[in-house]
Amino acid sequence: MQHSSLVQSLNSAQAQAVTSQADRLLVLAGAGSGKTRVLVHRIAWLIQEQHLSPHAILAVTFTNKAAAEMRHRIESLLHAPSGSMWVGTFHGIAHRLLRMHWQDAGLPQNFQILDSEDQLRLVKRVMRQLELDDARWPPRQAQAFINSHKDEGLRPEHIDDHGDVYQKTLIAVYGQYQEACERGGMLDFAELLLRSHELWLKQPQLLAHYRQRFRHILVDEFQDTNRIQYAWLQMLSGNEVPITIVGDDDQSIYGWRGARIENIRSFGDDFGRTEVVRLEQNYRSTATILNAANGVIAHNRDRLGKELWTSGEEGEPISVYAGFNEVDEARFIAERIQQGLQQGLRRSEMAILYRSNAQSRVLEEAMLRAGIPYRIYGGHRFFERLEIKNALAYLRLICHRDDDAAFERVVNTPPRGLGDKSLERIRSTARELKQPLWQASLTVLQHKELATKAGKSLHEFLGLIELLDQEVRGLGLSEQAERVIEASGLIPYHQNEKGDRGEARVENIKELISAAREFELNGEGDSASLAAFLDHAALEAGDNQAQADEDCVQMMTLHSAKGLEFPVVFMSGVEEGLFPSMKSTEDLSRMEEERRLAYVGITRAMKKLFITHAESRRIYGSEALHAPSRFIREIPQHCLQEVRAAAKITRPIAAPRGRAIQDADTPYRLGRSVRHPKFGDGVIMGCEGQGPNARVRVNFSGVGEKWLVAQYARLELL
Length: 718
Prior knowledge:
The protein has 718 residues and is of the alpha/beta class. The protein has five domains: 3-101 and 193-281, Rossmann fold; 112-184, Arc Repressor Mutant, subunit A (Orthogonal Bundle); 290-380 and 548-643, Rossmann fold (3-Layer(aba) Sandwich), CATH 3.40.50; 382-541, PCRA, domain 4 (Orthogonal Bundle), CATH 1.10.486.10; 647-718, Thrombin, subunit H. 46% of the residues lie in helices and 16% in strands. The chain has 28 helices and 21 strands. The strands form four sheets. Strands 9, 10, 11, 12, 13, 14, 15 and 16 form an eight-stranded mixed β-sheet that branches. The longest helix is centred in the last third of the chain and has 24 residues, at 499-522.
C-alpha cells in the first residue's frame, strides 16, 4: 500500500489529520465530517507509513459497537488482521488491565463485575445494615453519589462532609459499600477506571512498562470524557506517548452523567503544545440544515470554533409546525410520516426525537392510531433484561460462590419459600462473621437457625448449585448454559407470566444459549470459558447502544440520537420549558448544553427536518402553555418555512370530556386568543356542547384554566 492510497480518498483537512507528525493532535470533528474514517486511516497510516506495530497502538472508544467497527475497518484497510492492537472502551481496557495485573491492583484473581442493577442491590443491602430508611435515603440516590465520586477519582476518605448530615450519611454508605465490594471481590463499572488509575499511581514500574509499550494513543469522542478518564489518559501518556484525540465540543451533551466539556477545551494546556485540525466539511446534511445548526450553536460562548459546510445541495427549508396541543402535534407527525411512506421512504429512514421520555406516550398513540410500526430506540439491551440477568446469576454463582449479588438475585428466584426473615438471617450472619452470603448460608444451616421449611429450601438450592457445578465440568460453554438454564426452573417460572411477556422472556432465555454458542465459536481456550463469557455479558450490559432489526420508525430522546443519522427527522416538543428544559433557564452552562443538544438534533437530519411544538401541552400530569423555543428563533429565518394548520377546524383535536363541539362555525376555536373582563387574557384550550349552552375551556395567563358557559362568559375575541 502506498502512502497516497491512504489519503487520496480524503479531503485536505482529513489528510492533514491522518498524516500529522504532531505528538499532541486535536481533531475537531464536526457532525457528519467523517471522524471515524479519519481515525481508522490515521491508525493505518501509523502502522503502514510510520512502521508502528499494532501491538504499540491503543485506541479508546465509548461503545463496544464503535470498537468492533473500528477494528473491522482497520483490518479491511490494511488487508491484514489488527493483531495485538488494543481497541476498546475505557471500561473494557481498564478491565483488561486489571485482569492481567490483579495482584498489583490488590484484587482477587476471580474478581466479579457488578452491573448497575447488581450494584443497586448491594447498595440496598448496605443501607439496611446502616438501618437507613429507603424513603428518606433513596438507594438510587446513594448509588449515584458513589458513582459520581468515583468518576471524580474520590474515595470515601477524600470527601469532605462540610458538617452536613446528609453528606456525612452518604459518605458512610459509600464506605460500607466499598468494604462489601472488597470482601466479595466485586467491582462496579466506575471502580474499573478508578482502580486502574490507582494502579498507575501505585505501580510506577507498571506505568513505565505501558508507556514504553504504547507508542500512540488515540481517543474518540473526547468531549464525553469524565475527570477520571482524563486523569487516566494524562497519566498513561505523560510526556512520552503521542496522543491523538478526536471530538467536538459542540456535541458535548452528557454533562449530567459526568462528562466535562472542559477536558477538550483544556487539552492543549494540560497535555502540551497541540496541533488542531478542524473537520468542517459535512457529508451528511443539506446546506439548509447545516446553516440552521450553525445559527443555533453560534449563540454559545467559549467554543473552540468551527462552521459546518457542504458541497452538496441546498435542500428544502426546515418545516416548523405549531400544534394546538400535543395530540395535534403528534397527529401532524404521523400524517407526514405516512406521506413519506407514500413517496417511497422506508419507515426506518424516519426518526422522531424528543427531549424527555415522558413525551413519547402521545407520539406512540398517534403511531398506533395511524398503524405505523415504531420502535423506542435505546430500550433494554439483551444482557440487561431481567430474565437474562436471572440466568446469568445462576451461571455466575456456579463460577464464583462468593458472588453475593448473584446469590441474592436467584436464591429465591424462582420462589422456593425463602422469605425476607430467612434472607435477613443469612445477611446478618454474613455481616457478623464477615463472610460471603454462600458461606453464611452454610453456617446458618449448620446451626439450624432457620425454620424447617426454609432450611430445607436453602439446602436444596445450595445442593442444586453444587450439583450443577459438577455436571457442567468438561462441557462446552453453550452446553453448560443449556444445562444450568434447564435445571434452574427459570423457563417454567417465566412461562407462567401473563400474556406475551412470558413468551418473550422464555425466547430471550433460549437466545442466551445461542449467545453462548456464538461466543464459544469466536473464542479459543480460556477466552471461550464461562468466566470470560460472564465478563463479556457484564461489559455488554454497560453499553448503552441499541440494535435496530426491523423496518420501523425510530423514536428516541435527543441524547439517544447522538451518532445516528436519518433522511427525515422530526424534532418534537421544541418549546420553552421543555426544550430548553425549565431547569436550564437560570443556569448558563446548562442552557449551553441544551443548545448543544439542539445542534445534535438538527444535524441528525440528512435531507429533511421538521421542527414541531405545541401551544398547549399536558405533561407530567398538568397542562401548560409554552412559547416556541428560543432555538427556533436562533435559526436563520431564510432556513425556515412555517406549516400552517387547515384554516377551518371542524372539531377539537382532543376534548377532555363530554361531546366534541359540532358547530364548525363557532367563534370559540382551539388556539383562539380571548379576553375576559375579570380573568384577563387567555387562550381557548377546548370546547364541549353546542350553541348557547356550549362550554369553553380557557387557560388564562393570570389564574390558570377555567370552564365558562359561552353565552354568559362575555369573552372578547382577540
